[in-house]
Specification:
It contains 14 helices and 23 strands. It has 455 residues and is α/β, with parallel strands linked by helices. The protein is globular, with a radius of gyration of 22 Å.
Length: 455
């Protein structure tokens, strides 16, 4: 097909409806383009449980092999398992998944050798341009010697690597409910948790890319309702929810209450700083004030970045940071090639909880110090005009500072908010944090009134 890829090539990956927006023919061209742009003579490819994933992954492999690259297919895997393969094998990688998106979607997350990100300015735009050119003019000429395609299972090695980074052998027994959402957590959790002192209660471990129980997006509160109820019903110590490709992990405490990803970031940061005193911790600008506070208290250096995995990974590489966290429950580790892995973060939570006698709610209280609104989306016709209206209302206010590292951040003594435009939709995203709920509500309502004034 002749392709207009502008709608499916996002800032950090490829994502769209199959076969309406892209198909195996295009996947094969993407495979060839990926090899050409990365100048790779060998790559690794994995996929999730979506019905279209095996075919797309195979087509991508054919395109790569056609240009002479040897392809290692690792089959069903989580995205962080693909990053493990890329890091441990020293190969560029491609993961076929649409993460938490609905069943009709699929996509590709790509990385260079060592799980280094491929973003818009680091190869993705070039891959898109080549795929579009070849879609219009015909596939590139095949290499004189085509590459090979072989299969390899990396699950056991992935699990062993993670368990080598966090010692859980001495923890007290814990009962944990895990909601895999019919996604790849159902594939990885049994192997990673094997041999640990955990009584695991599985929910929706059956791999099913049609998501018959709920969307595999734990960021939406309605998708963790079943987990919350089951934790209370079982009298479990905690609950874990993974998204579709299992690179993000969300936590609920023994009461079934969600634990803020910022609190998890602060907890893991404290643990990593105990191993690496004085280390650098990366956090995006929407994480809680708690995160840099805890980092400083533990003797570390906190570095604030834009939202998005390529920015976090770039800053980690530049600073040699030991850990990074985002409000969306992406957690990045130097010991994991600066890549994000929700599973490793989950092991840290289990180790911290099992290493003492208190409940999870008691444990995280020290890391969850402020009230917050969560992310609130507003559909607007003119993002820039709405943002300018908000800026004008707060600029010059007594004791107020503004910055535009990523969108508009307004900070006062007792509260802050960030207003960011979506890259792909006509939305403005608002996050508010304050020292109490009443202040959160007041600031939230003030800003939303300005944002939505003409929409």
């Amino acid at each position: 097909m002749t392709a207009d890829l502008s709608q499916i090539v996002k800032a950090y990956d490829i994502r769209g409806v199959v076969p309406d927006q892209w198909d195996e023919t295009l996947a094969e061209l993407f495979g060839a383009a990926f090899v050409r742009v990365t100048d790779a003579d060998a790559i690794v490819v994995g996929h999730d449980m979506r019905p279209s994933s095996p075919g797309l992954a195979s087509a991508f492999a054919r395109g790569a092999a056609r240009l002479g690259a040897d392809v290692t297919l690792i089959g069903l895997c989580s995205t962080d398992q693909l990053y493990f393969a890329s890091g441990s094998l020293g190969l560029p990688g491609a993961m076929f998944t649409a993460s938490h998106n609905p069943a009709q979607y699929n996509g590709i997350k790509m990385c260079r050798a060592g799980a280094a990100p491929v973003g818009q300015d680091t190869g993705l735009a070039d891959i898109r341009a080549l795929a579009e050119e070849w879609s219009e003019k015909g596939a590139p000429e095949a290499a004189t010697t085509p590459g090979t395609v072989t299969e390899r299972d990396t699950l056991q090695d992935y699990a062993a690597h993670l368990k080598g980074l966090v010692d859980l052998t001495g923890i007290r027994p814990l009962k944990v409910v895990v909601d895999a959402g019919n996604g790849m957590g159902g594939h990885t959790v049994p192997t990673v948790f094997e041999g640990l002192p955990l009584d695991t209660v599985p929910m929706y471990f059956e791999l099913d890319g049609t998501f018959p129980n709920h969307e595999a997006n734990p960021l939406d509160p309605k998708n963790i309702v079943d987990l919350q109820a089951r934790v209370r019903e079982e009298g479990a110590d905690l609950g874990l929810a993974f998204d579709g490709d299992a690179d993000r992990c969300f936590v609920v405490d023994e009461r079934g209450e969600p634990v803020s990803p910022s609190a998890i970031t602060a907890l893991v940061a404290a643990r990593e700083l105990a191993k690496h005193p004085g280390g650098t911790i990366i956090h995006n600008l929407i994480t809680s004030w708690s995160v840099p506070e805890v980092v400083r208290e533990q003797g570390g250096e906190a570095v604030r970045t834009r939202v998005g995995h390529s920015f976090i990974k770039e800053e980690m590489a530049k600073t040699g940071a030991i850990f990074g966290g985002e409000h969306s429950a992406h957690y990045y580790f130097r010991d994991f090639w600066n890549a994000d892995t929700g599973m490793l973060a989950a092991l840290h939570v289990l180790a911290a909880l099992g290493g003492q006698q208190g409940t999870l709610s008691e444990l995280v209280a020290a890391y969850d110090r402020y009230a917050s609104s969560g992310e609130i989306n507003s559909t607007v016709t003119d993002q820039a005009a709405s943002t300018a209206r908000v800026r004008a209302a707060y600029e010059g206010g007594d004791g107020i500072t503004l910055d535009e590292l990523d969108g508009l951040t307004v900070t006062a003594a007792d509260w802050w908010f960030n207003l960011r435009a979506s890259n792909t939709e006509p939305l403005l995203r608002l996050n508010v944090e304050a020292r109490d709920e009443a202040t959160v509500a007041r600031v939230r309502d003030e800003v939303l009134a300005l944002v939505r004034a003409t929409d």
